[in-house]
């Protein structure tokens, strides 16, 4: 089984053979982000850590696209969105709202949490279970819904 980093590096080579310079440039950025993280930790990264790095990169692209859109640079926003879409191919399938709500409900029951003040405990219990399959904002919203009185 090849690691996620090896898959990225292989895709860089394939894009080079296909002379797809935009894809090569984007993939190299992603590989560099992973390698920089590994260098910072002074060890090779496991796939879950690589997924975390790629999710951060995707989030950067989405935020940059929104900023470019707001500034009237639609062409640059499109390029950022294309990179974010490219990254999605390397990330695990995202949880649906119903699946996420179910995980949150079980974490609430597991922790015995009641009320908004227990949000931190529930988030701490849920985040390892979603492991890259949902972003923190979505998890936070689901936990908020589950802990809201009424």
Descriptors:
Arc Repressor Mutant, subunit A; 2 domains; mainly alpha; Hypothetical Protein Yqey, Chain: A, domain1; 7 helices; globular; 150 residues
Give a quick summary of the entry.
This protein is an all-alpha fold and 150 residues long. It has helices spanning 4-17, 21-41, 47-70, 74-88, 97-111, 119-130, 136-147. It folds into 2 domains: 4-88, Hypothetical Protein Yqey, Chain: A, domain1 (Orthogonal Bundle); 97-147, Arc Repressor Mutant, subunit A.
List the helices and strands and how they pair.
Elements: H1 4-17, H2 21-41, H3 47-70, H4 74-88, H5 97-111, H6 119-130, H7 136-147
Helix pairs in contact: 1-2, 2-3, 3-4, 5-6, 5-7, 6-7
The CATH H-level homologous superfamily of the largest domain: Uncharacterised protein YqeY/AIM41, N-terminal domain
Query: How many helices in DSSP terms?
Result: 7
Span between termini: 48 Å
Poorly predicted segments:
none
Class based on secondary structure composition and strand pairing:
mainly alpha
Taken together, the total number of domains comes to: 2
Task: Average the pLDDT over all residues and give the rounded result.
Answer: 89
Q: Mind summarizing the main beta sheet?
A: none
Annotated CATH topology of the largest domain: Hypothetical Protein Yqey, Chain: A, domain1
Beta-strand segment tally: 0
CATH class of the largest domain: Mainly Alpha
Determine the oligomeric state from the structure: single chain
Rough outline: globular
Radius of gyration: 18 Å
Strand content: under 5%
Share of helical residues: over 70%
The CATH architecture name of the largest domain reads Orthogonal Bundle
Order of secondary-structure elements? HHHHHHH
């Amino acid at each position: 089984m090849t690691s996620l980093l090896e898959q990225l590096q292989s895709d860089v080579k394939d894009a080079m053979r296909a002379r797809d310079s935009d894809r090569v440039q984007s993939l190299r950025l992603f590989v560099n982000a992973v390698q920089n993280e590994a260098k910072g930790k002074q060890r090779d990264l496991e796939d879950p850590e690589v997924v975390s790095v790629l999710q951060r990169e995707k989030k950067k692209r989405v935020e940059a696209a929104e900023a470019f859109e707001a500034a009237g640079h639609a062409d640059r926003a499109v390029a950022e969105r294309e990179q974010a879409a490219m990254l999605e191919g390397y990330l695990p399938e995202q949880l649906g709202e119903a699946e996420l709500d179910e995980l949150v409900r079980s974490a609430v029951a597991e922790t015995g949490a009641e009320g908004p003040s227990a949000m931190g405990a529930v988030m701490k219990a849920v985040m390892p279970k979603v492991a890259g399959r949902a972003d923190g904002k979505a998890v936070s919203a689901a936990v908020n819904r589950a802990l809201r009185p009424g």
